[in-house]
Design brief:
The protein is 29% helix and 29% strand. The chain has 350 residues and is α+β, with helices and mostly antiparallel strands. The chain folds into 3 domains: 85 residues, Rossmann fold (3-Layer(aba) Sandwich), CATH 3.40.50; 61 residues, Dna Ligase, domain 1, CATH 3.30.1490.20; 169 residues, ATP-grasp fold, B domain (D-amino Acid Aminotransferase, Chain A, domain 1). The strands form 3 sheets. Strands 9, 10, 11, 12, 13, 14, 15, 16 and 17 form a 9-stranded antiparallel beta sheet that branches. A hairpin with a 4-residue loop joins strand 13 and strand 14. 44% of the residues are buried. The mean pLDDT is 95.
Length: 350
């Protein structure tokens, strides 16, 4: 294995390319954006659309295996490439994760609990759904929403019209509110031979719908820890998944776990593994996709990972001067509100 192809040019692709280089594997980035963060650290880059069959063919012929750094690469692109090279995650896994209704259906059919939900295609659907699952919930577009975008909170019937208008006629899903104690996430990896390795669950804290920090270990008991890992293993097994996946869960007051969403890629809540483990989630993903043995995901230190969002980047001189702070910048331009510019990880030394 000499070259891994990565669809997408954002910060996750950037960190994947850097992890691949550590293993002596070149990265070839494919994305439609000029001067992407990932392309600037990769051996090669192709700038073309995800529907450009000629460019995709040349890309596939130049690499040994292909992966994605974000889940919204068109599933048809992955299917086309899979006729020429191994592609992980699979088009089927991408398709499920790209549509919240397909995702919730998959989870429930796999025996995994979620918050109550209903598919919404009209204002009448929304009204009926609120009657069924309760007066409060979150209306989300079925596709493409992230970091609080593409969703509207409903606190009662008076919010129905405005929330539905916010969807701009896009197919939507209503999710009931879950009275959880904390959100946790498990970063899991599965190899092609079925071997699964999971990192310790992290506890996630959000602000304005955007992840602010992940603290490891999560404040959960042993039974919850075991169940969280078992759920992640069940998901990757049912998907016949290869690579790293992020599984976000709600830890409920009664001790049960509900899955909020799955992300078929390396995940923001796993960035702490770069400093907190011998094998980061990025190296683990490269290993899985390239057919190499999975590494030991054991955590050698407690850690706190903090996202640098928007103008947080203005504190860079202070962060760089802080003892023990591991700063990662993503090579982005303007520090717009809500834009993830980097992250900083601090190991907890007692």
């Amino acid at each position: 294995m000499t070259t891994i192809g990565i669809l997408g040019g954002g910060q996750l692709g950037r960190m994947l390319a850097m992890a691949a280089a550590r293993l002596g594997i070149d990265a070839h980035i494919y994305c439609p954006d000029e001067n992407s963060p990932a392309a600037r650290v990769a051996a090669r880059a192709t700038v073309a659309g995800y529907d450009d069959r000629e460019a995709l063919t040349a890309f596939a012929d130049s690499v040994d295996a292909i992966t994605t750094e974000f889940e919204n690469v068109p599933a048809e692109t992955a299917r086309f490439l899979a006729t020429r090279r191994p592609v992980h995650p699979s088009a089927d896994a991408l398709e499920i994760a790209q549509d919240r209704v397909l995702e919730k259906t998959f989870l429930n059919e796999t025996g995994i609990g979620t918050a109550p939900w209903r598919s919404v295609d009209s204002i009448d659907d929304l009204t009926a759904s609120l009657d069924e699952i309760g007066p409060r919930g979150v209306l989300k577009t079925r596709r493409l929403g992230y970091d609080g975008k593409g969703q509207a909170r409903l606190n009662g019937p008076d919010d129905i019209a405005a929330a539905f208008a916010d969807m701009a006629d896009a197919p939507a899903i209503l999710e009931g509110l879950a009275a959880f104690e904390r959100e946790i996430s498990v970063i899991a990896a599965r190899a092609e031979d079925g071997t699964v390795r999971c990192y310790d669950p992290g506890e996630n804290r959000h602000s304005d719908g955007i992840l602010r920090e992940t603290v490891v270990p999560a404040d959960i008991d042993g039974a919850t820890y075991d169940e969280a890992l078992a759920i992640a293993e069940r998901i990757v097994g049912a998907l016949e998944y290869v690579g790293v996946i992020g599984v976000e869960m709600f830890a409920m007051q009664d001790g049960t776990l509900l899955v909020n969403e799955i992300a078929p890629r390396v995940h923001n809540t796993g960035h702490w593994t770069i400093e907190g483990c011998a094998i980061s989630q990025f190296e683990q993903h490269v290993r899985a996709v390239c057919g190499l043995p999975l590494g030991d995901p054991a955590r050698h230190s407690d850690a706190v990972m903090e996202n640098l969002i928007g103008n947080d980047i203005d504190a860079l001189p202070t962060l760089l001067a802080e003892a023990g702070a591991a700063v990662h910048l993503y090579g982005k331009g303007d520090a717009r509100p809500g834009r993830k510019m980097g992250h900083v990880t601090r190991l907890v030394v007692e």
